[in-house]
Write a structure and sequence with these properties.
Layout (H helix, E strand, L loop, with lengths): L3 H4 L4 H18 L2 E2 L7 E2 L3 E5 L13 E5 H8 L2 H5 L4 E6 L6 H8 L5 E4 H7 L13 H16 L7 E5 L5 H11 L2 E6 L2 H11 L3 H12 L7 E4 L15
Parallel strand pairs: 5-7, 5-8, 6-7, 8-9
Antiparallel strand pairs: 1-2, 3-4
Helix pairs in contact: 9-10
Bound molecules: zinc ion.
Length: 242
Amino acid sequence: MAGPRARQGYTRRERIRRADMVRAHVEQFGWVCPGWQRDSHPAENLTADHVVAVGAGGREDGELRVLCRACNSARGSSMADTRAPGLDIVLVAGPPCAGKNRYISEHADPDDLILDLDALSEAMSLAGTYEFIEAHLPIVTEARDAALERLLLGSHKVRRCWVISTAPERKRRAYYRDRYGARSVVLWWPEETCLLRAMNERPPQWQEYVRRWFDRYEQDPADEVLRSWQPAGEGSGSGEDA
Ligand SMILES: [Zn+2]
C-alpha cells in the first residue's frame, strides 16, 4: 500500500490528521504496534495509513489504521490487497444485542455485501429470526467463510463487505484482519444493557449468549472499540436493538 513515496503526495491537512491519529493511539495504548500477521509488539516507528489505499480507489480522508512501518509494508503485500485491491472488509464484532446490524444499516451502501451468521442461519432453515439452531452452526459458518474466501479470489465487483460476528476472542478478530485485510470494529455496551435487551427482545437462550461473550471477551488495541454506539439522532436510554 502507500509507501514513503506515495505518502509525500498528501496534503498538509492529511499529514496532520495522520500525526493526530498516531498521537491518540500512543496516548491510549503506548508505543505498541497492533501487529500485522503477528502479535502486537512494542514499536517506535508507528505510522497511520489508509485502510484502503488511495491508489486502490480509497479517499485521501478515508479511514486510517496505525501500524509500525514493518507491519505496514507486510500489509501492503498481503493476499487481500494483492488479489482484490480496494476491497474493504469490515468485521463488526461485539456482544449479542450490541446493535451490530443497526451499525451496518447506518454505514453500509445498498451494494455492499453483508455476511451475517444469524441471517444466513435463518435463510437456511424454517426457524424464525434469532432462533438459532446450534446444530446448523458448522454448515452455516462454512457458507459464510466460503463467501469470504471467494472475495479474496478477485474477479468480482464487490467493493465492501461487512461481516457480523460476536468474535469475543482477540485471535478470532486478528484472523479477519490478517487473512482478509479486515478492519475490526467492536461495538461494546455494558453487560447489563445487553442482558436487558436480550430479555426483552430475544429468545431466552440469548441471555446465556450475552454472558458467554462477556466471559470470553479479550481486548486488543488493534480493534476500533465503539462504546455505547447508537445511530445518529437517537436519544440515550433506547432499549431497541437489531
Ligand atoms: Zn508492527
